[in-house]
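Field: sequence (string)
Field: structure_tokens (string)

Example rows 1 and 2, in order.
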Amino acid sequence: MAATCLALSASVMAPAMAAAQDAPLPRITVTGEGEIATVPDMATVSLGITAENPEAGAAMDEASRVAEALLARLDELGIAATDRQSSDISLRPVWSNGDDGTTRGITGFEAGNQLTVRVRDLDRLGEVLGAVLDDGANQLSGLTFGLQEPKPVMEDARRAAVADAMDKARVLAEAAGVTLGPVISIAEAGGGFAPAPMMEMARGAKVPVAAGETVVSTQVTMVFELGGAAE
């Protein structure tokens, strides 16, 4: 009878012990941030041409003529064909507002041509902008600064984010009085580029431009196991 009770007790304890052994250890999840500021070496700008005329064809012809002149000037300035792209071509009617009691109607047409240009020599950015304005561009928008080779800077930002997460995890584990275990998982939450405050104006340029800095940032989420009480 005693042997039967002992066997039954062992059979009940074995699953409980196995469950305790299989139970996951406590974990901690932290998010680290990495940010690297660097000097940009490339600019991207959107140039616009608009032309109005009572005739649709004449308006489009005028916008096309100016666009061709801009492309020729970019050739002279050494801007590679791969660094410029037509981003939008438009033609829309111009309407009278009818405020004087007349019937609202079409009085002409406005043609537009948008060109996106990358300038890889920032020392010449002001010169490029001044030249295209001289040749008939009447819209400038979307000036952004960036990096021709962003990968090395992004890698530094990722290293900084991981180091930040590990520092946070160590501080939290120490404050809780436990040991920090191995890394269970790492996930990147996303990265990007942002302009930092502008610093120095380009000299000798027809259009003054401040390149400033470009900030590359990213976030990582890391999960660590927690050990027993710290000694």
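Row 2 begins here:
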Amino acid sequence: MNVEKNFASRASLWGACALVGCLLASVPWVAQATTLAVLQQPALPTAKAPRAVLLGLARAGERLVAVGERGIVLLSDDAGVTWRQAKVPVSVSLTAVQFVDAEQGWAVGHLGVVLHTEDGGQTWQKQLDGERAIALAVQVAERDAHQPGGASHLEQARHMLADGPDKPFLDLYFSDRLHGYVVGAYNQIYRTDDGGRSWQPWMRHVDNPQGLNLYGIRALGKDLLLVGERGLLLRSTDAGQSFQALKSPYEGSFFGLLGTRDGALIAYGLRGNAWWSDDRGGSWRRLETGIESTLASALELRDGSLLLASQSGELLFSHDQGRSFDKRQSRSGGTVAAVQQAVDGSLASVGLSGVAADQDPRASGKP
């Protein structure tokens, strides 16, 4: 399996620098040199950071936190009007970020990096990287080789070891300050029960025999759900102890999930495809988005309405559970990789052109 090929559909979202990083990492001697450099070199301060390629955006209390290329992390305390750069110990591209409260948060990225902050994103510490992640995977696979399916998992782990530590993490989910998961390429999934001080390889707990890439993880009530390439859908009903494959309504890749306050589930991905389930993923209905661009982000707004955002900058608002959409263009006029609602109710987005303060959803005339 070739990581660059599998991720080609997301190349425009990641940006040229992220894709080039994957291509260079495919050459063994370049991969080793690149790994040592970006894992040891702190992100460089730059006045151009707000215009950098940014891929993730989260709320930390009233603060907005954006992450992206070269380890850039940006903070805004005025609803996205101004931004300042945080201190980050690596210069690897970051793909996603989540906070469980105003202080505690995590970010993931290329080369298997997991970062943690305890001060609302102002400073970060590395908790995991690709070299350590693969070593853990091999160690656990060797320990469990005698168990059913153990030989196959050991072979996969050794293959990843030989291939190098270049595999990215693409999403994460933490339920609180202690319990969380990170997921990514080649069925990579790691679990922590101590806030990231230690990590457990969790691949054996996932019904993904082809080792398909995992693009998203979210909770819906007590369930945990995963999405990935080729229509992959998985659900855990036992607090993450096992993830079973669900019947998928779609053969293309899903890049994300949204669980609503009313208990509905939305899976979204390539070519404007979005699907709705009100029975925890047991059955799905297609949402008629009216667009062909890849959907990159989804959000439930304060008033309960839904927002889907595409890579092309299209913002789709729905006030009737996805039965119809009011389409607009992002005020930035550029791509959108992630979108968040700020404390004042306005929207902020990030993408290939950096950060943008977007339109207030109340402009639609809805409360």
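free_text_note (row 2): The helical segments are 3-6, 11-14, 16-25, 28-40, 130-143, 150-163.
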